[in-house]
Structures are given as C-alpha cells and as structure tokens.
Design a protein that fits this description.
This protein has 443 residues and is α+β, with helices and mostly antiparallel strands. The chain contains 14 helices and 19 strands. It has an eight-stranded mixed beta sheet with strand order 2-3-7-4-8-17-9-16, with helices on both faces. Strands 1, 10, 12, 14 and 15 form a five-stranded antiparallel beta sheet that branches. The relative contact order is 0.23.
Length: 443
C-alpha cells in the first residue's frame, strides 16, 4: 500500500469510497519501522498457542504440496509476470479477475466472481474444522495506461505493481494449485479471495465479509513484507479540502480573495500541528494539489488532499477536528469559502467498537502459528499490532485476522517498483502451511 523504500525487512540489492475514514490493515510504514520496539516486541516472554507443529510439513500430502511449489516455482514466477502485466487499477480489476478465474477453472476449482468483482475460490473441507479465508488484493494504484512490462534484472523483477500486490496474487494462485495437485484435504474450508479496491479502503473485502456473515473463522491478508505478522489496525482518514472564490484576471487581482494563497497558508498551518512524541503513533501527508484553469487569473478553486494515519482511533479523531479548525481559520482570514470532500462518515472510534482487545488478538493461535511457520522456514519474523491491509476489515468486525508478507521488494506505488523473485517461494510456502495448520489436515 504505502510507497516506501523501507518496507521490506531486508535492504534493496484505487469505485467510490464508502467512507472517508477507515481502518486499514497491516502494512509496515517507514515511521512504524523507525519506532522503538515495545517491550512485547523487544523481548517477548509470554507463551502463545500455536496450531503449527514440525510434523505438519512432513505429512504426506502437505510434503507433496511443498515439493510441488518448489518444482513449479519457475512457472509461478511466469504467472506472476503475466498477472502484473494485466492492468488492474482500483475499480478496473475485472480483466485480471477473469484471467485468474480461467486459470482456476482448469484446475477444477470452485471459483466465481462475486457482485463486488472479487474473485472467490473455495477448497471445501470435510466440515469439522474452521473456515480460513485468505485475501490478496488484485488492484494496483497505477493508471490503466501505465507501462507494466516486467523487466528482469537477475533475481529482481521490476514493474509498477510487481510487488504490491501482484506478488500476493501469484502466491495465492500457486498455493491453490499445490493443494489441489497434491490432494491435500483439510477439515475446514479454505476460501481464497482476490479482492478489489483494497487501495481505496478494503472495499472488496468489506463487501465479501458483509455478504458472507459468520463464514470466516479467521482471515489472513497476503500483503506486506516477508516476515511481518500484523494482527492489529492502522486507522486512516483521507480528505480533499478546497477553497473557493470568484476569481479574477491577473490585471484586476490585487487585493481580491485568492484560493491559492489560502491553500498555501493552510498547508503551512497543517504542518505545524504537533504530533505525539513517544506516545501513540500518528502521521499525516499532503499528497495532491490542484486548481486553476489558466495562468493569468486567480483560480476559482484550489484544492489539496490530506492522508492522516494513526494507531489510535481517538487521536485520529482529535487530529481530524484540528485539521478542519485550521482550514476554516485560514478560509476566514483569506475571505474565501472552503469545503471538504468526502464528508467524514462514522468516526474511527465508532468503527473500532467491535474490535477484540489487543491481548485477545495477540493470543489467538493464528498469530503464533504464522510466527512458528516462518521460524520453520528460516525467515526472521515479528508480530505487530498495527496494519493497513484487507485484514483490518476483519479485525474491526471482531474476526481474528493477520496479514503476512508476499516476499521482499520495495518502491511500491511508484514506477520503480521491484520485487525479489526467490523470496516469493518462502512466502508461498508460508501461506500453504498456515492454511493447513489453521484449517486442520485430514478427515
């Protein structure tokens, strides 16, 4: 989700929004990585339950599925490239979904595209285990006319969207094939959802959960850097502020209300808002500016966007109020009108009301299971109570959920995006092992 070079755990070798303020599931930001570890992260001494045992990867069908992933990894990378090169800007994922649907129909998998546009594949269990739902968002942030041609540079693949989140989609497809080809039978159902519009606020996952209440016992989002296990929520609010005035030709503009001047003053004021030092994490960013139609006139409108994020719903709401106050103050000073779009829907505090406590979320077996799987695979891992992926659509509904990494890469949301191809193999093995550990193997 977030464009950053620091997301990966190793150094480098976008339909209308339902809400203007939503929690987003896990994605490590540079600032979050820079924060000092909490005592629980620095030296975790408490023991948590796990469904993973070292015997699971050695059992017949699971062993065969892992072996299939290894022997077919080159094909997985080829499909990863094919997926990346299919344009899938948020709201325009259908071509990608149809391609994936066709590939899974060949495997005789129960697959469909739901009314929201999500790709949904189900591997039925024997009926006496929990239903585990995996989500990999199909959308990217890149316009449909972006050059998506993948360039290979040794182990590095370069293309817009190659890491976020085409890698996860390819991992999901390989996992499904491996389970089917090896004849793995789980007790609980495994449901794989290629979601739409995650970049716009997890709309696809929210639609699926709303349309299938009570189905998911646990949700795993495939998104982020390899080794991360996020079980919490990072809340965000996005808004577009605009200043309005009558406008005027440059020759008669002196002394008249000026939306562009107001915009400049407002942005300066916003960046003077103090943020907590050593307290709850929060950050904001003015990311887009616009306005005016000609060079020789006062613009009738000038606008900017603000992206506001925090691990504290109450702090997010407080900062949200402060943003409005400062914009209104500037508008009055510069004698212009102002507006905000979209209008804030239910607050983050209200939206978080059904979340399980941090202690309950951390102690659910899904978290330690993922950590133990990573340890088995030799991947350095950590758990973190924050997030910005599809998992949070489940977290806020009180459904145990985590997000796990798709591999190693960086520069996401830019034209320079890259991914380390070999790292996707361990990431895919982790998906498979978490699936069979949580859903249970055998009938």
């Amino acid at each position: 989700m977030l464009p950053t070079r620091l997301l990966e755990l190793e150094p480098n070798p976008s339909r209308k929004r339902k809400s203007s303020m939503k929690p987003i599931g896990w994605y490590l930001t540079p600032l979050l990585l820079a924060l000092p570890a909490t005592p629980g992260e620095a030296q975790e001494t408490q023991t948590y339950p796990s469904n993973f045992t070292a015997e699971i990867p050695q059992s017949g069908s699971v062993r065969d599925a892992l072996a299939w992933l290894e022997s077919n990894f080159d094909s997985q990378v080829e499909e990863w490239i094919r997926i990346t090169e299919i344009p899938a800007k948020s709201g325009s994922e259908r071509e990608r979904a149809l391609f994936l649907q066709g590939e899974l129909e060949v495997e005789d998998v129960e697959v469909s595209i739901d009314p929201a546009g999500n790709l949904v594949a189900r591997l039925p269990g024997t009926g006496d285990g929990p239903t585990v739902v995996f989500g990999a968002h199909m959308d990217t942030v890149h316009p449909l006319d972006t050059d998506l041609k993948v360039v290979r540079d040794g182990d590095i693949l370069r293309a817009p969207g190659i890491f976020d989140n085409s890698a996860s989609v390819a991992n999901m497809m390989a996992t499904i094939r491996a389970l089917v080809r090896a004849g793995v039978q789980t007790r609980g159902d495994l449901i794989f959802v290629g979601t739409v519009e995650e970049e716009l606020g997890f709309n696809g996952m929210e639609d699926w959960l709303d349309a299938n209440p009570g189905v998911a016992d646990v949700v795993v989002a495939l998104d982020g850097g390899l080794g991360g296990v996020a079980y919490g929520a990072l809340w965000f609010g996005e808004r577009r502020y605009a200043f309005h005035a009558e406008g005027s030709h440059t020759l008669s503009s002196r002394g008249k209300p000026h939306p562009a001047q107001a915009l400049s003053a407002a942005i300066s004021s916003i960046y003077e808002i103090p943020l907590p030092e050593g307290g709850p994490f929060a950050v904001y960013n003015v990311g887009m500016l616009g306005g005016g139609l000609v060079t020789n006139a006062i613009p009738q409108e000038a606008w900017f966007t603000v992206d506001l994020r925090s691990v504290s719903p109450s702090l997010l709401d407080e900062l949200d109020v402060e943003l409005d106050r400062r914009v209104a103050e500037v508008a009055e000073e510069h004698r212009v009108e102002w507006s905000r779009d979209p209008v804030t829907s239910p607050s983050a505090v209200e939206a978080s009301g059904s979340m399980l406590s941090e202690e309950v979320r951390r102690s659910h077996p899904i978290v330690q299971t993922a950590l133990d799987v990573y340890e088995y695979l030799g991947v350095r891992a950590r758990a973190q109570d924050s997030g910005s992926t599809d998992a949070v659509a489940a977290v806020v509904r009180g459904i145990p959920a985590i997000a796990i990494g798709r591999g190693r890469g960086g520069e996401q949301h830019t034209l320079s995006e890259w991914a380390n191809a070999p790292s996707a193999l361990d990431a895919t093995k982790a998906v498979l092992l978490i699936a069979v550990s949580m859903a249970g193997v055998g009938g």
